[in-house]
Structure formats: structure tokens, C-alpha cells
Request: fold
Amino acid sequence: MAQASDRTVDNGTGAAVRSDINARFHALFTNHSGTTDTAMVEKYAYQFWADTTANQLKIRNSGNNAWIPLRGLSDGAVEASTTLPIKIGGTTRMSIGGTLAEADGGPSVFIKTSANPFSSNDLNNEGAQFTQRGRLNIGVNDSFCMGLNRWTSTGNYVLFAYEGSQLSGATISTNGTSVAYNTGSDYRLKENIAPLTGAKARVNQLQVHRFNFTKDPSTIVDGFIAHEAQAVVPEAVTGHKDEVDANGDPVYQGIDQAKFVPLLAAALQEAYAEIAALTARVEALEAA
Reply:
């Protein structure tokens, strides 16, 4: 068979190219009796196509429907009708594409898994998913999900942004010994600064409970109920009481208990001031 470099191919409508190349492969796999070994053609030749739109000459594997441009033509892109698998030793280790719904992230790059890793507890769904919508899902059965490591310098592990702009001071960082979870607190980010008063009365409004979570009945913990705490420290709670999504499924509230620290600190300061005043009165009475 002539090498591609030995002849000029006129892409044209593509019909002549397909006819010529496929004829050559059929000739290559014709046995001594003059009969074409169709199985050999399908196994090794597959199907050729001259894509006039992309100006590419492509070969398609009939098993996975992946169009692979031949070397030296156009941009060398690989096309697949649904999913393009990448196999090692006959086992799919990575795939690109898929038919996931937009709600699950849409077409994705999958490592090991072939479905949303968090859609079930199936052990086969261990792996990673990088979705077209920018999500990263990681599922493991043991050890850790993600490892972050800095070399030669301390500083940030993670930065946070909104609408393309970094959130000032919002990072996860290390000083080489411990990890800090930071939110912006520079005075230049703030205005209308005033003392926090009446903190002790607000703390007394907080209802503190003991309870267990439904998934762990044997463990009793101390804490708040989100909507109750929201009435006292709104910035500490996300979501709304009894909220549901479009399917009627619960959208659960969350709580950031660190947001209670300023109120508790102010309440302690008020209590310490009262204690100091009472101590002074007692000392004055005792000295009389």
C-alpha cells in the first residue's frame, strides 16, 4: 500500500478518498481465494471518512464510534458520539463525554468511574468526575479524598472568588505548622463600625440543645437548631426553615458556629463589667 506521503489527496466531497482508501484496505485483507476477509477489514480498517467541513481525514472505530483524525490533518481533534473511553490493559481507566443530566454536571471527564460518584454507594463509583459545568466530585472508600501540599513556602492552599473577583482575605492557608480558615476582616473592608451592645441579652435568647443526628443515633452532641439561632444571629445561618427544591426534596439549613464568637465575646465583656462593679461594691461595703 502506498504511504500517505507518496500521493496527493484531493479532499473534495470525500467520496473519492473514502472509496480509494477503503478499497486499498479491502485489497490488503483479501485472501488467496479472492474473497475479502470482512472480519479482518472490520477489525483493522474500520471506516474512513473525509470530513470536508473540518478538512480532516478520519478513521472511526466501529466499537466506540470515536472519530480520530489521521496524523497531520487539521487540528487533530478527537470526536465521539457519546463517550470516548481510554483503556489500559483492556479496562477503561478514563472516559470523556457521557450523558449526565445538567443537574449532575453534564458531560464530564471521568477517572475510573463512569457515573456521578455520589449518586449511590456502589463501590464501583469510586473515582473522580470533572464536569462541564465546573464541578469536581471525588469518591473514595478509604483514606482521604484530596491531598494538598505546598513545597518550599508557606501560604494559601485555596483561594475563593465570586463573579471572577477574589474574595478579600478568603483563603485556606498554612504557616507550616497549622491550617487557618480565613475570611476577610481587614478594617479597610468595613464601614459603620460601632460597639456591640446588648450582647448578654441576645445570648440569653439562644436556645442551646442536646440531640443526635438521625444518621448517628448513638452520638449525643450540644448545639443549636438552625432556624432558632437564625432569629438571634442571622449571619450564622444559611437557608430558610422548611425550604424544599423544585422536586419537593428538603434544602437543609446550615450553620457557621464561628459567627457566634463576636456575640459571645461581647456578652462576656458585659458580664465581666458587671462582676467588676459588684466586686467593687462588696469591697466598699466590707471596708465600711
Remarks:
- The CA atoms of residues 244 and 250 lie 4 Å apart.
- The chain has a mean pLDDT of 79.
